[in-house]
Amino acid sequence: MTELPIEFGKVWAMARRDMSRWSTYKTQAMISILGGVLGIISWGLNSSYVNRPVTEYNTNYISFLIVGILISSLILPLQQGVQNRISPFTLETILMAGIRTPTFILGTVVWPYILSVILFIPQLIIAVLYFKAQLIINPLSFILSLIISSAIIFSLAMISTGFRIVTKTSDPITWGLNVASSIFSGMTFPVQYLNNFIPGLSNVSWILPQTWVYHIVRLATLTDASIFTPSVALSFATASAFGVVLLPVGFYTFKWGLNRAKRDGSLGHF
Amino acid sequence: MSEYALEVHQLCKSYRVHSNLKIGKGAVINLFNFFEKITGYGSRQVVALDSVSFHVKRGEVFGLLGPNGAGKTTLIKILSTLVLPDSGKALVEGIDIVKRPRAAVKKLQTVLSESIGFDRRLSGRANLEFFAELYGIPKQEAKQRIDNLLRFTNMTESANVMFQRYSTGMMRKLLLCRALLTDASILLFDEPTASLDPLAASEFRKLIRNDLAERQGKTILLATHNLWEAEQICDRIALLKKGRIIAIGTPKEIKSMVADRVNISMLVSNFSYERSSELTTAILKVRGINSIEIRDSIAENGHVRINIEGNKELSYNELFRQISSFGLEIYTLESLQPTLEEAFLKLNMEASR
What we know:
The complex is a heterodimer. By secondary structure, chain A is mostly helical. Chain A has ten helices and two strands. In chain A, strands 1-2 form a two-stranded antiparallel ribbon. In chain A, helix 1 packs across helix 5 and helix 2 packs across helix 5. The longest helix of chain A has 35 residues. In chain B, 36% of the residues lie in helices and 29% in strands. Chain B has twelve helices and 14 strands. Chain B starts with a strand and ends with a helix. Chain B is α/β, with parallel strands linked by helices. At the A-B interface, helix 1, helix 4 and helix 10 of A face strand 1, helix 1 and helix 4 of B.
């Protein structure tokens, strides 16, 4: 019988283990819940102050920013999940259990992802009820945008983790991705705004996969964009192309890092 | 089915050692380190294993004996598929560890000295349950097996205590429980009793020799630098030095490799210190004598101790004739067999030449 590439039982075992650990840090658990709620309040207050229309998405700045923050809190844990679990000796022990790479990667991110979804709900309620964020969600596009975004961010996580297994504490790839994301991806402002400083600068943004993550999720949550509309379909197709290219790149970079560390004998070094 | 549980053929491994820059933590230096790690440029090679070959029979307890840096841990990590060899071949129950690492690693369990891998915030039992799931053991069977293992290692009472509260001995026992979860027939131990107190170490050795090896018939590969431990537990031993096997055999065989040297220790009376150098010269002329030591500083009830090292050619008649000619009377006489430690030191010294 052909084995599944991902052993879901093992993925779930890893998620439950992470959840149990998380629940033992009661103070941290409380702070992370509170932090999520306070974070959205803080961003909401900031955006209320500078509120202006965002024509690119036919909405106001509060709605634009709050969706950006929500995307970050929903998707970034995917990126952090793998990196955080590459701790001393964890990798060696898990690998000695003979589990497959996709199982290991998925298993390490499932609990952070579930947690971020749980934290996302109160944030969403505050954003809509208190700050009057105008969400006009297209359910199909929204689900699709989450899947594509997760694939992109997860791929980036695998790429940076692959390098981190080799370089240990930090690596220029993750650093570069974070810097580029904070400047060009348009989390807190529409990327077209960059053209006010250097004409054509926003073109750089569209090379970055993170920009497409924010873009398609905003289309799906702020504009009721249907994927059957040609312009929306094109955006989703472009984002999907990033996902399709990056997933194998991420997977092989991760495997490259693993094999490289095995050759160097540095799997347990951190 | 292969006759051997483990087969190692001409295994070689060298590591890159990266430069240690002490200039500070500037971005340029970080980028240089990154470049060096990715490309290997600027690093030097250190040999960890040099054409290592041996076989371990099924049910055998095989020891890898050597000082720190001899390559023991590297060898165990290669067999556990955590390190890739540069060349050579290693088979676990006939499965190539490089070509089919997942299949090979399922045949064995490894207890590394430094690698814990347990979640410190979970109890010992919860940790074992987690690994049982990773090993794909059905829930009911896992529960039963964990209960048995906890009983076997006397850990039942502390099973529900958070792992971070465990003593070193308890951690080691939990590592053993994890290794035994899958009931693998091959167990690899890296310094299993290091950092244990003498009582816990003795208990652990008994567990390995009496229970795992003799009762359960498991194949055990054990890396240690404790000579006494190797002699007590192992059926056969490989002596490693700087990545090379310098001797291999049973402890008795290894001792006999240096037994061509004869060590005689005697207590004599009527010793004349004035004729000490004359006696030394005369005895050194006896066929087969390598060295003589007169321990004149330690008088034992008025006697003097003479230690003589000879070889297989040693003429005892001639030796005793010379001793009598100096008017000495032999009070006690011992012919000393080399210990494993002496054998190890001598073989080590020979390998250095």
